[in-house]
Amino acid sequence: MKTLFIECNMGAAGDMLMGALYELLPNSEQEQFLETMNSLFPDKIMIKADPSEKCGIWGTKVNVVILGHTETPETSEQEHSHDHHHTLHTSYPEMLSQIDSLPVSASVKEHAKAVYTLIGEGESHAHHTDISQIHFHEVGTLDALMDVVGCCILLETLNPEQILASPIHVGSGSVRCAHGILPVPAPATAEILKDVPIYGGTIDGELCTPTGAALLKHFASQFTAMPPMSIEKTGYGMGTKDFPSANCLRAFWGNMNILPVPSPRQLPGSYAAHSLTSFQEEEAHPDFYTEQFHSLDQILELSCNLDDMTPEAISYAVNLLMEAGALDVFTTSIHMKKNRPGLLLTCLCNLEEESRFSRLILTHTSTRGIRIQPCYRRTLDAQFQKVRTPYGEITVKISTGYGIRKYKPEYEDVAAAARTCKVPFSKVHEAAMNACTHIL
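Predicted structure:
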């Protein structure tokens, strides 16, 4: 799965995101992108992608030239997003109409309008007015419009299968805007970032702008730690101001489908006990090292601590969650405060099912809170087949993939045959496993 992961350790601004995405383009496409962007408003604005260095790291700084005046540190979006010198009082409907008039694809137009809707809703909430009455006197400038449209064009060109982002560093302190001095994050930015994980840190200044916040809110499907992925390219979008930390936004382009199977020489020490013969057998399988991994599945782990429920009540909750379709549910013995014994209840579910299973846990257990942790997993393909044994037909689960093949007789069938034939469970299980040798 082609994945774009955006690292926001130094916040996010539209020009920084555009610079990082620009660096992910093949060199042959970068010039075409600049030509496209500079054809949108040929008599009013142009952009340049200039090399820039922060703390020894080199990246791209997207510079805007409007009517012969170059954007300076005092007018950079990240540092003074609310105090542009090139102010255009453009209403929300006028902004949407302007986007519709651009010579770009319908998809880019729809994404750009959705981003501006998020900005407009944030501004209208901050100013207690209807979105139709909002005038983009702070983020409605042509350079901000270029940031939004440019990022939409770049993402259309890159065409990732999923976009993930880290929690966003918003900065701290205050920012000067047209209305006066406001706390960081500014009210409109804070409104846009509702339901997005953010943090303040010790850097004094506005690190996340409304434009950057809206772009991330619209495009990122999840805000999480960087997942396991094979990195193919990294892009650095540089800010203007200098901080003790490198003022850049990083974009990682990679693949979550393919991770190489380690060779015996690369296996960690815990695997060293494998015999050379077993490794030779594995290597002899034509698919062991050459078969590519399937896509990583992303699931959620919901967990809570319980120390005031009866075993019967916990058993009921576990069975209810399994019957509701959880991927797995289990409990682990733990010791809680005051050395009280308790249980850790863990429920595994798909991402889209989180709210349903969280509600079930909150309803049917005594907990007041649930921890939610994203997990990634690899699975073998499974199919079922019946095999003949002296004790009747037994269903066997066959798990395959990556040159691996496993057989497991189904418990219910084995138990039923053992009861019917009045033989030990182990004899039926052994007979079923022996029958598996005839499966092709």
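Summary: Confidence is low (pLDDT under 50) at residues 70-77, 79-88, 258-293.
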